[in-house]
Design a protein that fits this description.
Length: 421
Amino acid sequence: MRHNDEDQMEKLLRQMPKIKDDRDPKQIYREIQPKLENSPRRSKIVPAFALVAALVLFAMVAPMFINNMQFDMSLSGSDSSSEESMDMATMNEDEASDDSAADTSREALEEESSLKLEGEEETNDFAAAEIHTAEGKSFVTSSYNEGSEYAVTIGVSLMEADNLEHGGSTTPLTVIVPRGENDTYVDALNKIRGAIPYEDYGTIAPTINDNVKISEGDIGLASPMPILVVTDMAKGLTSHQNRLFPKELSDTFSTNYTHILFSDNGSTNGVEIGNRVYDGPVELPTKNKRAYFKYYTGSLPLLVAGHDRYFSIGDALTAMTVTPKQADTSKLEPSIPDTVKVEKLSLESDRAVVRIKLADSSVLENNDETIFALEAMMMVAKEFGLRGVVFESSQNVTIGTITLNQEVSVPYSPNPIPYTE
């Protein structure tokens, strides 16, 4: 109120006419000084009474004002408390989240550290296990006890190998089967051919498993041969099967026999399977002079012969350092890695053993990759009809079952797989 009164008074004063006083300030002071000295003093009783009245009035009004303030404060305090509690809750959640994140981070770091240590231990254990298992590890069957065992080969087609010209690839799987007293090779084959998990190796069950009955018979030739009774077989083969069926048969029987014989309803002549007609014994090809590649889509890498024939071992080995010509979906790989380099080849005087000089820059470690590469070369030597191989190297070490700088016999067959009765 006082502030408004002062404003109003100032406004009134501004509206008054201007009065000009030409007197000197000293003169004015001299004129009013006697009046100031003679004026009566103002009584202090009235102001004191006014002060007491004001205090009484304040005492009456103050409780109501304080209650209102408390009420207002309680409302704003409630909102503030709610917001504060929400903020606190949020902060607690954030802090809890941060703590949780920190704990999680710490746990993650500890877990990572733990896993790192475990990983290092596992790596070391794995490396040790790999070295341990690599001693004597092999991707070929070098030898077996002929008196008590059969090394049975089963030709199979590959699921993911395709060639536009040849339609696909086959390879033999090798199983060592105990030999019964009167068992023939065919008996051992019949015993296991239906029990192998072919898909585990990225292969398809052989066509002979389609109701083909196999026995061994003597038809007056130099030695007995397998007789394949195809009466119950679905002989209308697809174009893909038609190309691969003869290759499967060669992979299955050529290690033990030179010929096979088809029989349909008791006749061995004019037996029609797919788009081929067979009359009498069928000769199995050998010494194909092919290169070998890697096929690894299943539980084991497989050695797979290519389709091309080569004039020399050197040409075949060169082909094995690159991916073969194949369809885009095909998964054949080079069998000789960049770490293994062939410097030169030579035949020994008896022309039955090839000496393969490995360059000093080769990284010859006792691991799957190197073992596979050397054994692929040995399979090529077998294809060229040789007896053995000597890998010449500046390193005198053993890779798998191969001792460098010493003659090693060519394998009996590739791709040994486990089998238990």
